[in-house]
Amino acid sequence: MNKTICLQKAIALLVLIQCCTAIAAQELSTKFGKVTNDELLMSSYNNDSTASAVVLYKKGRMLYEYTGNKFRLCYNIENKTKILKSDGTSYANVIIPYYDSNKNTMKEVVIDIDAFSYNLENGKEVKTKMKKEYIFKERVSDKYMQVKFSIPNVKAGSVIEYKYKVLSDFYYQLPTWVMQGELPVVYNEYDITIPEYFKFNMEMRGSDQIKTTDKSIPVTFNVQSGASYRAEPVYATARNIIFVGKNLPAIKDDSQVWCADDYKAQIIFELLGLDFPGSIYKPFTTTWEQIDELLLEDDEFGGLLKLKNPFKEEMKSMNLAQMSTKDKIAAIFCLLKKKIAWNENYALYGKEISKVIKTGSGSNADINFILMSMLREAGVACDPLVMSARDRGVLPYTHPSIQKLNTFVVAAQETDSTKVFLDGSITCGYLNVLPPILLVDRARLVSATNNQTKWFALNKVCESQVRALISATIMPDGSIVGERNTVYSGQFAGRHRKRMNAAKDSTAFITDLETEDDFKILQYQQDSKEDFNSQIREKISFTKQASATDEYIYINPMVFKHISTNPYMQEKRKLPVEMPYPYSLRISNSLTIPEGYQVEELPKQVQFSMSDEGGTCRYLVQVVENRILMTYIFNMNRIFFGVEEYDLLKEFWATIVNKNNEMIVLKKKTL
Fold first, then answer.
1. Average pLDDT, whole number, for the chain?
2. What strands lie across the sheet with 135-139, from one edge to the other?
């Protein structure tokens, strides 16, 4: 028997070795125009069986050219992709954006586009070249164009490849090279040559996945000089860096992170300065103070900070002088929101404010500029707080960047030492109750005065909490009849209002509540539904059916669960987990035991937490005379958990779910 087991293991090991050898020996080419038989025969990607396509290789080569007595950047891009499934054929549709503005003499052009598809037909390779008529150009904005093309004869099993060149006058801006995308990548190479005249700062993300070769090489530029404009060679030294990534996993959009792009392996460059022979070193590194100045000097930003209040007459009848500063800010915001609705666009700059006022619709930036004009009219100091919205990626930590700024909120001075924060996109929130997409950990105050705190964290500016108190009686048939009083604060109040507003009517809203928690509402009351404040109070008389037999009643002491299933069930996770905001729950229940019954089983009382108190929970159940008393206190204190913490996070929530699903067993007393 032992010999049989050993033989089976030996056979299994041999098969595994053969499979690994086959994978390792699989011939893949990184040369444009060469497609191997293994590439054509490939039917799945071993490292990701779910992939609809896989990038066999992607190459980028960037170098400086000197032409017309000026430098320009030249990018050569190559891509070869294997289409594995029919839904992967969309990757044969390629879009290349580039800068082209009539208001700027500096431009970019895309040239030398070439593309092919390869298929196996009757055992033979069939190569199809893309014709020029498949290439289109279209304008997408006043500053950007894009080239679009579709590679022909593409289906599941095809190999596609394409290449193109970009010539850019923006020699001082090296675009970020992103090595990962929504498809897995077998091989990615970026070869960049930077002459000694250009000094760049370099940031590598996912550096553990990138192999780097860095060396000095000689370069030659032909420079025209003298009256004859004869070209003469100029010899220089350049830094040649080659970045290589192999077998890079796909990074797709993920519901548990705000911006998956933040976590892709990538190389980011920032120009530090220019150092030409015979010239004084010219620094290019921008400080945040310089960015403040640029914004304040911009007509569509700083110019709008001087906007005159368009609703001055309407504000005269508001009796603002009798209000506290906080109430004054809230009243002005409510007036503005009645005048102008948010068009669901986030922006950094204002556009045609007069048109916004006329149409009654604008971006959050448009509304914010008008709000600041109204607040200043009322004597409330305020400033813009600029940021990158959470779904647009984090601000870089290594260097300031005006390009990464994409929106702002209003910081209004409530007292000498405190500010409150508002935004034109608020529809169901309150002061400091901003939409979660704006709850960033770094936002910068833009002000002409330098004696103020400049950086603010918005992810903890409001307390979001649910406090619930249930008093109920358990009936012999297992029904629970009682009353629930709930106070929703902060983000929970906003969510509750949004849910009410989305319902067709009050009947539909109540039906939705009943369906979600499987109970019957006998009477419903609430206040502050329409009010602009941070809380909603709710009172519900209800009946809810528990499981019962002739002898036993099975009761969940939570009555209304915090959560039923674990949201973190992945076996292995590639990305961190980002929560929308910190929050807490406080639930206190008092359940009267029916006469003639006694408690046979009671859940254990527990108190547990994650490391660094990232999440904590207290679950207390006890019997006092004829009542079951339950206290549940939950706190989510942190909103970011790294990949290395995922198993702990999953375990923590598994315990939460288990406690939420535990039952009390009541047994009928014997006579």
1. 91
2. 93-99, 144-150, 135-139
How far apart CA 32 and CA 60 sit, in angstroms, is: 12
Q: Per-residue confidence at 551, pLDDT binned at 50, 70, 90?
A: very high
* Domain tally, the chain: 3
- Cα 116 versus chain centre, distance: 35
Give the contacts of 663 (CB within 8 A, at least 6 positions apart): 554, 555, 556, 601, 603
524, amino acid identity: Y
Q: In the 8-state DSSP scheme, what is residue 452?
A: S
Question: How many other C-beta atoms can be found within 10 angstroms of the C-beta atom of residue 404?
Answer: 15
Task: Give the integer Cα–Cα distance in Å for 33 and 466.
Answer: 62
Q: Whole-angstrom Cα distance, residue 390 to residue 258?
A: 6
Pairing status of strand 159-168 against strand 70-83: antiparallel
- Residue 185 is which amino acid? V
Listed in sequence order, the residues at least 6 apart from 302 whose beta carbon sits closer than 8 Å to its beta carbon are: 295, 296
Please list the alpha-helical segments (H only) found in 411-524.
491-502, 506-517
Q: Which two tokens stand for residue 660?
A: 């939420």
Same domain, 445 and 309: yes
Q: Supply the pLDDT for residue 258.
A: 94
Please report the pLDDT score of residue 12 as a whole number: 34
Looking at residue 285, its pLDDT comes to 66
In this structure, the strands spanning 552-555 and 664-668 are: antiparallel
Q: Place 16 in a pLDDT band, splitting at 50, 70 and 90.
A: very low
Determine contact, residues 484/469, Cβ cutoff 8 Å.
yes
The closest alpha carbon to 578, from 648, 499, 635, 649, belongs to 649
pLDDT in tens, 198-227: 998 888 988 888 999 999 999 999 887 665
If pLDDT is split at 50, 70 and 90, which confidence band does 279 have? confident
Domain end among 221, 256, 283: 283
DSSP H or E stretch at residue 375: helix 364-377
- Please count the other Cβ atoms lying within 10 Å of the Cβ belonging to residue 203: 15
Q: 539 in helix, strand or coil?
A: strand
With cut-offs at 50, 70 and 90, classify the pLDDT of residue 552.
very high
Q: Are residues 474 and 421 in the same domain?
A: no
Nearest to 438 by CA among 376, 491, 500: 491
pLDDT at 229: 66
Query: 422, 456, 490: which is the final residue of a domain?
Result: 456
Q: 218 in a domain, yes or no?
A: yes
